[in-house]
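The following record pairs a protein chain with its ligand, NAP.
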Amino acid sequence: MLRLGFIGTGSLVEAVIGSLQRGASRQHRFYVSPRSQTRSASLAAGYANVERASSNAEVVERSDILFLGMRPQQLDDALVGLRFSPDQVIVSFLANTPRSLIASKVSPATHICRVMPTNAVKYRRGPVVMYPRDEVVEDIFRELGDLIVVDRESDLTAVSQASAVMSSHFKLQNTVVEWLLSRGVAQSTAAAYVRSMFRGFAELTAETSRARELLIPEDYETKGGLNERGRRYLEEAGWFEHLTRTLDAIETHLVLKPSTVAGPMANGDESTAQSAATTENSCK
Ligand SMILES: NC(=O)c1ccc[n+]([C@@H]2O[C@H](COP(=O)([O-])OP(=O)(O)OC[C@H]3O[C@@H](n4cnc5c(N)ncnc54)[C@H](OP(=O)(O)O)[C@@H]3O)[C@@H](O)[C@H]2O)c1
């Protein structure tokens, strides 16, 4: 039995705890920070093994593993005056916040892991990227999605930036739904069709990955058929190159951010806590 402490009980932590309660981790004890008030109170009311601490300091005192679930710009306030111990493991969910920065705030604790799930963790689905390797932390997150342990912190940074396609993917789906509506298809039919189609595609692509095969779009097209025409049209319109340039722009925006924490954030796709790319390769 482990004692898991969460400082910053926001939407991600709520999803993580809810998902952990559906697996082997339900044997652990959970301590949540008093903020957010509503979420921490509701978790404590919902699960017998979750306790709402009276302060962040109490969470630190009572936990073996501490999860940082606040937004990067809230980090300093949340950790002020807290006393960590050298044997505590720190798991940071903070996007674009290097280990070196976390290390400077949680000393003398030195054992720091970064874990980057997506919103799909709520359904125990999607990637959960982690750096560096740690068996105990891996055991906790293995059940919550496709655990990917990377060898370099810069890989974790890059995949976090790639997650910026999430809402665009939703927009793409909605555009197809709207097109169907414009052709007189009922909303329920259009939505059911499009959501199910993309879910099926996700399974297909996951299978190629499991089989370590390349995903070759042409293999899924009929010569001269609808898909070939659609892909070629988008290619000629520069659509896919634009996607690459969008990711380049996201990366550049993050690198160019000033070292102070700023910017609106949600869902892990926020601006960086500091100029991450310049410092993270030097992280231990
Ligand atoms: N959401 C995702 O899918 C996702 C994915 C990957 C990574 N992340 C990362 O996870 C972190 C949280 O994201 P989120 O979407 O869950 O944000 P969120 O809902 O805004 O959660 C932040 C939480 O931190 C609390 N907090 C703020 N200041 C605090 C303090 N001084 N002491 C204790 N708690 C404090 C907030 O409480 P109040 O409500 O009282 O202010 C809130 O509950 C971010 O760093 C983000 O980069 C999120």
